[in-house]
Amino acid sequence: MTEFFAYEDLTWPEIEALRRDLPLLLPLGGGYPLDRAAQTLGNPPQVGLLPAFPYGWEGSGLALPELLVGAYLRNLLDSLRADGFSRVFALTPQGFDADLGAQRIALPREAQPSPPAILPDEAQRGKVILIPIGHTEQHAYHLPLSTDTLIIEAIASGVAAAVPDQAATLPVMPYGVSTHRQAFAGTLDAGGRAFEDFWVGLIDHLAGRGFDRLYLLSGHGGNCSHLVNAVKSAGDRHRRIFCATAWLYLSGPQGVAALEARRRSAIGGMGHACELETSLILHLRPELAHMERVVDETDFIATPAYYMDWVEGGALVANPPWDDDTATGAYGAGSLATAENGKFWLEAAIAEKVEHVGEIHKQHRRREERRNNGYGLWGKRS
Prior knowledge:
Shape: globular
Low-confidence stretches: none
Order of helices and strands: EHEHEHEEEHEHEHEHEHEH
Mean pLDDT: 94
């Protein structure tokens, strides 16, 4: 009988140790008969099941053009092949093609996921729609590939629970952009252009349904510059929405103050698989934090205008190879992490994003008042 295991729960050295002919499946949604998937693959002893792609296809509740979804998926599958995996497939509903060809296994879905796969419904108009985006990428020897996804999902869910009259959240997207993936096995990459096109397409869809306040939340630094591009494009395409993003979380004045109040590491101790992220995972999913494997790495090649810490500093923007600075995939001092600080920082991150939700509402309201009063070019348009 085939054993299906959760790919995203592994660390990158565990991914590196896998046989390269082991099948890997990336499902679109859930509810598939996995026994039939195993039969299609020849009933292998094991199959790696990647995190589900949450929406984008017809029947998901939030359908986008297949061209956008297909480009995103092909890049993800290709990044696994670049790591040497030879049996990599998308597991899709019947009728979905997206030019995936032989890269696709199509099966009927036995059941719809519960709870409902997609928010928002039309009753959520007028709220800020939170769009959390994580990633499936290496987090050193001690944290799972799902780290960024778990954290930003918890933040978005916390915000929606804290101010349900002001915000609603989409399911978390577990795939983003990694340009440093070559050095560390297991990291996926959606590709910058396909990633941006997908999120512009999502904004088009939501704006077309009357959702006019959108907040793209990223748990992964590699997504952020691309989300800025998507937000700027959205502002050009949809002049009466307010669409925003931010650098990760705990990056504004209150968030930075919360970090400084509890951090035990010096500058360089909070970057990636670091004191902060390790603390958050110790709070959220302690069984996935392998503290006996932690290696602190803070020897980043730093100069006054280019250095690594949580809120990255310096005037220079660059992207040198990660393996110039880290042998294990870590940037920071994970050994200093505590679950108690993880709880404190998660609550602070939620509070920061709740403040942002309030500002987005205020921005939209005040801008609509000006527009309706004929301010600037609005007064010259019929």
